[in-house]
Amino acid sequence: MRSPASIESRKRFNKLSVRVHSLRLRLSQWRPHGAVGCLAALLLFISCTEQDAEQQTPAGFELLTGDETGLTFRNDPQMDEVLNVFSYMYFYNGGGLAAGDFNNDGLPDLYFTANRDDNALFLNEGNLQFRDVTVAAGIAGQDSWTTGASVVDINQDGWLDIYVTQVSGYAAMQGFNQLYLNQGADANGVPAFREAAAEYGLDQVGFGTQAVFLDYDGDGDLDCFQLNHSVHQNGTFGPRERFDQQGRHPLAGDRLLRNDGLPDGVGGGGFTDVSVEAGIIGTALGYGLGVSVGDINNDGWPDIYVGNDFHENDYLYLNQQNGTFREVLTERLRHTSRFTMGVDMADLNNDGYTDIFSLDMLPEDPVILKQSLAEDGFDVFRFKLGFGYNPQFSRNTLQFNNGDGTFSEIAARAGVHATDWSWGPLFFDMNDDGFTDLFVSNGIPRRMNDIDWINFKTQDNSLPGTEPATKPSDELEYVAKMPQIKLYNKFFQNDRHLHFTDLSQGVTGAATSYSNSAVFVDLDLDGDLDIVTNNIEDYPYIYRNQLREGGGKSARDSDAYLNVELVGPDKNLNAIGASVVVFSGNGRQRVENHPARGFQSSALGPLHIGLGDSTTVDSMLLIWPDGTYTRLDTSRYNRTVTATYATGLPKFDYTSLGKTNQFAPLADETAGSGIKHSHTENQFVDFNREPLIPHMVSTEGPGLAVGDLNGDGLDDFFVGSSKYERSALYFQNPAGRFTSPEVPAIEQDSIYEDVDAAFADLDNDGDLDLIVAAGGNEFEKQHLPRKQRTYLNDGAGNFTRTDVLNGVYATASRVLPMDFDGDGLVDLVVTGRVVPNDYGRIPRSYLFRNRGELQFQDVTEKLAPGLASLGRITDAKWADLDGDEDPDLVVAVEWGHVAALMNTGANFSVVELSDRTGWWSCVEVADVDGDGDLDVLAGNFGTNNKLQPTVAHPVRLYVNDFDHNGREETVLTYYVQGREIPFANYAELLKQLPYLKKKFIYARDFARATPQELFGADAWRQARIFSIETMESMLFEQAADGHFRSKALPDRLQWSSIHAIQKMSDAADKTRFLVGGNFHSANIEMGWYDAGRLSVLTIDKQLRMEVNPIEGEVSGQVRRLSTLDVGSDRPAYLVAFNNDSLRLFR
């Protein structure tokens, strides 16, 4: 054992290594001129890194390597001509890891698998020292290729067994899964194992990844779910339906094996494959890399989440309680990771519902990010959707359980969407504060997605006029040229508000690695959970938890814990599937006993419950796998208790487990209303013309307008359409039902994109006429579909097209009627959304004065010059903001402010209401706090995205003719780790700006270049710049002096974009608003904004806010909301979705 002095010396060395690594990274991004500049930069960065190291928040863990612990195992797979990363793409996925007390001495031991070498069993000898007993235990495993390891007492004899997964039947990889039965320990405490897979029917042959044991059918014994992966050589590209028709693949399909009892020696008992009858998908598409078990819907039955790599959907299997599962992923989740690796489940916010986390490969380092392959293009993405695959994005995904069977993906909001090439996520309470934290294992020895390497492999990267690059003579030489980048494993502390803080650099002795499988387990029995990783090309790492320095005492009184040793029924002695529920001031914690977690890993031991402040604990219940429960003793903590199953216990009421959701009291009444209208978006793709814009602007319909069109005292409405579809009028009858007659004047105008509409009496004849705003982004200049249309009403609801805005061509966002000058005639505002095919230019907006006789005069420059070039206006509302009895115009501007054009009586002057710029998308005006003046609610794109702008680090849009071809380009930038970089990837920029290919032959140089180096210092300096400083949706409260104070809307409304806010009827001195959003037309690198739900926002007089979603799956892309009266004294609400059906709620 090393001396304390040598260990302290190593700690200092490791701290210095961390600083040097940070210094190298910073210097790779800094290019000072000359020797003096280099020296100054070096001194500056040494100073900064010293300061950073001192200020880094401690993670509470210390890294111990194999030299210190005796864990001298190495997984170091060597390639040959037959088996390598080209013949088997999962060559570097790493080995498995299992933890359990295999010799029953009270200390958890460790079992590591190696891909091509011997596996290893290490006995825990205390004080974090381990002894290799592999040979004596007889558990070295088979030759060929080994992956995951699972701990299970398969024969319920009280000795833990190990089930090892093998890859076989491909590329010279042979063998079968092994079941090592524990025969007990000898006098020296060394357990002996006997291989018995065939005896139990578990000698599975296939592309094995990991096995999970669970009681899926509720018969009391443990069944087996075998996760398998696939290879591209299986012909795994094509429509999903085709693979469904082909049926189960003999090697790649996942399998469910039912436990039929202990083998009787004559063919009875053992495990039986019931995959088909149980509903388990087993096609060649199953690239299974991650599997997790948990009770997703709080019914007491284990459900299964399977994470699939590449294009295949992940699977979410809901247990049907009858021996079958139903796969429901596309019903419950809106998108997933694209290259799903490991997965885990836990309740992250103590609301009693289980959330799901999956890992992908999105780099967090800006240099690695920009030299790695990125997302598919928009066309390929749509192509995959057409082939039946669900939406997938290359990033980690955190699926928040909404408690009603649906999930909202919030990884970016939580700060965990990018951890690089990650493998195993583990949810557990690192600091015993009562909230679940997150560990992520990281790194791969060869980065196969490196752009330069891919180009080197597939094409000649030589400079023009130079000799062609020398090509390697064999495949292994290609592999040797793949980049190698070790990464830090990630430690995230739960901040209790569905957000995590990265403390990875605060690990004592932090070092990089290629870490794959990982477990958490209390190795030193001090009452906190340590972490073990199985690494490639390194000894295993142990991260010792420093929360308790010995003696089992808490570092603080608030760090209480309880370990629960489970003694289950005869057929499930370790009570797999049991859970502990804590009711406390922290909410409702639930910790489930499922040993297999993360990636190719399993750990079985006492269930560890972090409690935080133990004085807030009300009760703790242990729910057994059969649904009965035991009340645990809460009189003392910071100890291990033993809980033993008994028959005759009371049944647990699972309805009490999750917090009761307070849904808004609105019901969908569309079915009985007669409304049968669906908006179908045309397939125009803005990115084909302007590849570098952040999102499309051609999907912002349909428009919606409400009014009494035939003078019968009932509300009717207009709903718009996209190009080549038909807009419609709906008339209400006295019974509260709607009918839609043919209106030839409207139907013949199907070439228009009707993004907004309004009813107003344009000709002063006492009825409502129709004004329709033409939007979209397809047509340019004076093309007919850019005309703004008006239809005159004959009083009976019959309309004739009579345009009053002749000569006005615009891609509009809103049309707003109002008598702004008090002359009794309705005037019009038309707001400009964009300039088609020229996103960087500001569109023109218009103010028209009604001169009578259907004559409208453009008075913008005369009366509202600030309106003409205010910006890319997304929404506007008329309201008397200053209480002077004339209407002002409140506007939302993308790449600008929420602003108001204040009506002075003589003209309009622009006043900024927001203190920060944003992608403001909608506004609503109301007296929110009841103080007699009007406040403003403004929708934005939310905080659940990659951009995360601030005042110090804004998102910017640079506009200039960077390639001097006579046409301006737009370059979007954002900050990653404090550095401003282009959002577009290497391929996108080279396609739009071909000169960059000559300037930056290699992606690695592109990735390290500053924007000035990329685009030219002069062109960059001379570019027009637009910026956004926040993406939060806001309430702007008007103070007594007329100024506006900003207050962010609740977190739940920041999970996605908001595109419509509608004032509702007030309730009990509270103001209510219907809020909707979501947006699917962003750049694929940006991903979908889809975590929002149609919700009711309630605000009291003190500006306290509450959000209540509408019950059910109401999560499409809301574009318009309108109130209308339908046959009773309760108002109803029309909800217009883009590319979906119009719905009526009341």
Automatic annotation (TrEMBL):
Pfam family, one: FG-GAP_3
GO biological process: proteolysis
GO MF annotations in UniProt: aspartic-type endopeptidase activity
Keywords associated with the record: Signal
Positions of the Peptidase A2 domain: 898-932
Keyword Signal carried by entry: yes
Protein name: VCBS repeat protein
Organism of provenance: Neolewinella xylanilytica
